[in-house]
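Retry 2 of 3 after timeout on previous attempt. Resubmitting structure tokens to design endpoint.
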């Protein structure tokens, strides 16, 4: 039964091979809205893919086809790594299978240290980020602070990983802002002789990853939170005497975590195999395994490709081990929570815990904000000696020097990012609509991506980039593909689509289907309802998803470096290349531009719905 203004309608559903149909009549008088005779059913509203079995089958197959198309390059890339890893690559003289590449890999100095750094970075980054998000939600769920936090996530997500890493380096380095602020109380007149950025334990690397992954996990957790029904679950927990934090962790968090598990695994995989952030903040003697792989891949000696392929499989094994250990930690955490819940302790006095729960998120926000401020200051700074907190003079000299050689990378970055984001948005919208139409729902039920489709979609985020993008590069070389914008856009799509889907799936499925039911009852077809009802009402989420896809493409370093082969430089590849130079002013210019591009797109995504619906008050929040 559903209701309208002044009317109550009763609906019946029937299923067939062609799909599910819902028909409605006015319950108060049984007079159909179409003016037919009393007692007859009104117009039929079809929730299936089509009234024809062919269209219904197409709607069911389309999401799977799109997800498989995006997962296919992962399989191709891994194949391009596996064969050379075992010595077979005829183009480079490898005619027979051999274990020589693995023997060469095991002979590399400090290999175990590199493996340990990658393993530790993956586990520690994920653990701290997940705990920070869980405690923050537990302490502030249902409060105004949660809504305010959600509004600032967009600008934080617009900051690429490399720019965030440079900003953090400018904060924590011996000559950075933190030591400048402490110079007076500590009596420092010169930067202390400390190895902070690039420390041998990769602590600064993990810190840089954590401050970026906390906002990302908060975003996906916010999207999953409504489906966990936190208000009613917390009400039951509080009625049993549990405190806010304990009640959330015992009653709500398990339901939230089940929905964000794939993004959490993606964070673990990324942290264990990251390259650009490791080049900026990580140790160099020895570096994490992914950085060593990049060195071997770029070696002028082409025979090093065999060693790099063996190393890529080793990186794949390290990431798989990280994921396995994380799954074991999940089970241990579940048992710990069950034991604590069964112990009967309500933990109702949690005011101190709630006060401290926001510190990790606050620290992440401050680090990203102050880091961005430092990038801006250094890009305009003249001579800036330690321990001055602010530069005594500002200059445009660094911008003038950079502008002479930055136009081509900037244009390439914009073209690739906007093309990848738009194509990804179209693919994701088609996939989500196919899922929605092929999986009819009951009242109050919210469809989700099927597990198989979600697994295929997020596969490029779980498999290390360094493991399969290198294989794609080998195939491109064997097939004599020249680096081109089209090829680069296609590779960026592999990584952009999952994030666009992550941002758009929740709003797409949450839109009340009765709007389209009304359109159908007025004689409009499915395409008209999509173009005139669904897309306008979802304009805000669609533009936000587009901005997220744009930002993800701008931040792609490794795919651009390997597939572009140095011929298609972007602002990201140029900024990371400056990491070893040490010129903070030029680094500030490049990193700030890398951040400004997605920030402008996020700004447009925020403003355009209000401008498009300026005469429709109820639609301004769309």
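Retry 2 succeeded. Sequence:
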């Amino acid at each position: 039964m559903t209701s309208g203004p002044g009317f109550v309608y009763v609906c019946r559903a029937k299923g067939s091979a062609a799909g599910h149909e819902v028909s409605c009549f006015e319950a108060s008088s049984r007079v159909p809205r179409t003016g037919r005779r009393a007692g007859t059913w009104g117009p039929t509203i079809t929730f299936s893919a089509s009234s024809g079995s062919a269209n219904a089958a197409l709607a069911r197959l389309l999401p799977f086809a799109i997800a498989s198309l995006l997962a296919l390059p992962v399989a191709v890339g891994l194949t391009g790594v596996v064969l050379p890893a075992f010595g077979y690559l005829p183009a480079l003289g490898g005619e027979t299978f051999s274990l020589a590449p693995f023997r060469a890999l095991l002979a590399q100095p400090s290999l175990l240290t590199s493996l340990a750094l990658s393993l530790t970075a993956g586990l520690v980054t994920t653990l701290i980020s997940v705990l920070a998000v869980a405690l923050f939600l537990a302490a502030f769920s249902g409060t105004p602070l949660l809504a305010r936090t959600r509004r600032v996530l967009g600008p934080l997500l617009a900051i690429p990983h490399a720019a965030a890493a440079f900003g953090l380096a400018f904060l924590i380095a011996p000559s950075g802002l933190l030591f400048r602020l402490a110079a007076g109380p500590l009596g420092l007149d010169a930067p202390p002789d400390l190895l902070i950025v690039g420390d041998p334990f990769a602590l600064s690397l993990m810190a840089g990853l954590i401050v970026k992954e906390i906002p990302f996990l908060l975003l996906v957790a916010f999207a999953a939170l409504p489906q966990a029904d936190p208000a009613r679950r917390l009400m039951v927990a509080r009625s049993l005497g549990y405190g806010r934090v304990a009640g959330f962790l015992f009653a709500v968090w398990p339901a939230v975590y089940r929905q964000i598990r794939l993004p959490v695994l993606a964070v673990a995989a990324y942290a264990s195999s990251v390259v650009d952030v490791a080049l900026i903040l990580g140790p160099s003697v020895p570096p994490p395994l992914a950085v060593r792989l990049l060195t071997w891949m770029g070696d002028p000696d082409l025979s090093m490709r065999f060693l790099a392929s063996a190393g890529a499989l080793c990186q794949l094994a390290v990431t798989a081990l990280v994921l396995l250990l994380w799954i074991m930690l999940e089970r241990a955490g579940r048992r710990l929570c069950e034991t604590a819940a069964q112990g009967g302790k309500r933990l109702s006095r949690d005011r101190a815990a709630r006060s401290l729960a926001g510190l990790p998120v606050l620290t992440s926000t401050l680090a990203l904000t102050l880091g961005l401020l430092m990038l801006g200051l250094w890009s305009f700074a003249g001579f800036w000696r330690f321990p001055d907190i602010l530069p005594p003079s500002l200059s445009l000299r660094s911008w003038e020097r950079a502008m002479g050689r930055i136009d081509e990378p900037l244009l390439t970055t914009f073209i690739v990012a906007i093309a990848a984001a738009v194509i990804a948005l179209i693919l994701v919208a088609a996939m989500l609509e196919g899922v929605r139409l092929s999986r009819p729902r009951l009242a109050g039920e919210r469809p989700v991506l099927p597990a198989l489709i979600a697994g295929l979609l997020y596969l490029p985020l779980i498999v290390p980039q360094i493991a399969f993008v290198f294989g794609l590069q080998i195939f491109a070389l064997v097939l004599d593909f020249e680096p081109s914008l089209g090829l680069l856009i296609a590779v960026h799509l592999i990584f952009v689509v999952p994030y666009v889907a992550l941002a758009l799936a929740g709003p797409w499925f949450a839109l009340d289907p009765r709007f389209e039911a009304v359109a159908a009852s007025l004689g409009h077809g499915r395409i008209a309802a999509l173009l005139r009802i669904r897309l306008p009402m979802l304009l805000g989420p669609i533009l936000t998803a587009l901005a997220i896809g744009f930002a993800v493409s701008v931040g792609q370093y490794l795919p651009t470096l390997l597939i572009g082969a140095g011929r298609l430089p972007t602002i990201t590849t140029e900024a990371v290349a400056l990491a070893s130079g040490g010129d903070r002013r030029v680094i500030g210019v490049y990193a700030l531009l890398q951040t400004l591009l997605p920030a402008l797109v996020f700004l447009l995504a925020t403003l355009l719905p209000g401008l498009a619906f300026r005469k429709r008050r109820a639609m301004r929040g769309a």
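Attempt log closed. The first helix runs from residue 53 to 85.
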